[in-house]
Amino acid sequence: MVNYRLVHIFLSLCVAANGYIALLPSHHVSLTLPSSRRSTQLHSLYENHPHWHWPDDSSSSDNYSKEPIFYNDFDLIAIEQESDQFWESPSAKQLASSIPANLRPTKTPDTTISDFLNTRISQVTKDSRQLLKNWRNGHTKSYGAFTINEQYLLNKEENKEDDPDSIPFDWVRRVDIGQYPRVACGSAHGSIFVADTTSKQVMGAARAVHYSEHSDEYTNALDEQLRQYIYGEYDGGGVLDVAMFGKNIVASAGREGGVKLFKLLEDGNQAELVPQGDVQALIPLITGALPIVVTCMKFDSYGRLYLGCCDGFLRIVTFPQDFVFGDGADLDSQDLHVTVVPHWSEQAPSPILSIDVSEELEMVVTSHVNGNVCLYSMKEHEDVYNMASGRREHVGVIGVWNPFTADESYARSVTFTSKESLHGHKHAVVVGGGNGEVWVNDIYPEYEESNTGEVFVDEYVQKFEPNHVGPVISLCSRPEGLIVSVGHDGMLRMTQTWIGLKNPKKATPWPLYGLGGYKKWIGSICVDDEGKRLVSDGMDDAVIVHDFSAYEKKEEKQ
């Protein structure tokens, strides 16, 4: 049975791709569509076209403008009731000669489209498996994507480094990926940069916009004890965290407190990182009071900004849509909407040190100084059990887990991970501690059916071996349970987890390999949306890219 809907879709794609038109013989099955080409000018233009045939009585525009025009850009995929005989007919061979060889289908539309889709699916699956294999085996091309000292080095070449107004040497502190190859990073001098990792150039910079030891323009609001939790023995100074959305929106948090917003405005080959003000809700109205310190942040794909704060509360910043998806720079801070998510009430709020967002689960996870890992539901159209209020609400804490009760360590970093299994798509949370430990715990799949708020299940907990030396500063994940962790030991580790198993003790996390050479001041690692590249700081003034797809391309060339 012919699927004419598929034929129609395929023909439409073909029309858009090629633009030549051939009239089907009257005895063929074809689509009848009103023509939009009705002017005398167009008639004159196409009347001698070899693949355009006007009706015999179309002596004037009035005649043919009222009649539908039968057309089909790919006559060879038309369906005839006696198709086997037609494809061997002289008319079919004559039509075939007018179509480019690479576009000539040899089968009926259903078969052709099906074969094309199956081939494409097979290729995508093969590429995906090869990419995952590269991640597991450490097959990557690693390089310094760009330096934030480009202007400094230029001044040095021109002997301007002694100028008191010259730009000083700087170090990268925190990095995030926007729409690749766009990357944003902070610096030890409190500056923000946006760069293109393909061209290896900084596109825009906002210098000294945050507190640093090199400037007295801002007041340090970061508590000394909290500073120890964030940096341990290796505090490189500067920006606390940075987040990027799309190609041009950047948010950053400094030690003076609050969040600053920026937008990269482009005009031809010129670009400028323009400040857009602060998130006013984080600045207290009391004179002399310091703003709330934001320790971590992350954008979702809708442009919402999630903030982990020193007071232990999760905040969500919603921007006007024209600012998020438009090219202009007219953000009014009064247009920002900030939501404070209720905290779990059984314990006092503890400063948040790390945050991750899962849009698939519609959840957010945070790690805290007291060792807790808190899971929040962000489902807008469904009530869930909120542990903070004891009621079913749209947003709230739905689960708390603490794997560090034995030595009372703090939970320094956290991320979601997932894996396909025989029982479906499984999800888990991974947390890194200040003691160098890394733990993983499955998210209980039927938590919504329970009214107790139990999301984590003790028997699913697994511990990574060996530990990192020093705090686990940052975590990120790839599909199929691959976890990337980095600590103050300067070692970036890849570990395979086995989540979703009924008896996880039979398959404990398996260390795969490590990527060395980092400084102890490494602060962040992240994976691009395509899952091909791992980007990190930790190399002085350079941002490092590990491209796991480059190895595959190299093999193809051989």
Overview of the structural elements:
There is one protein chain. This protein is an alpha+beta fold. Helices cover 17% and strands 32% of the residues. It is built from 10 helices and 32 strands. The strands form 9 sheets. Strands 3-32-31-30 form a 4-stranded antiparallel beta sheet, with no helix packed on it. Strands 4-5-6-7 form a 4-stranded antiparallel beta sheet, with no helix packed on it. Strands 8-9-10-11 form a 4-stranded antiparallel beta sheet, with no helix packed on it. Strand 12 and strand 13 (305-309) form a beta hairpin. The longest helix has 29 residues, at 109-137. The radius of gyration is 29 Å and the shape is globular. Mean pLDDT is 79; it is low at 1-84, 384-389, 448-452 and 554-558.
Assembly of the depicted chains: single chain
Indicate the low-confidence ranges by residue numbers. 1-84, 384-389, 448-452, 554-558
Largest sheet features = 4 strands, antiparallel
Distance between the termini: 44 Å
Mean pLDDT score: 79
* Tally of helical segments: 10
Strand content: 25-35%
Q: What gross morphology would you assign?
A: globular
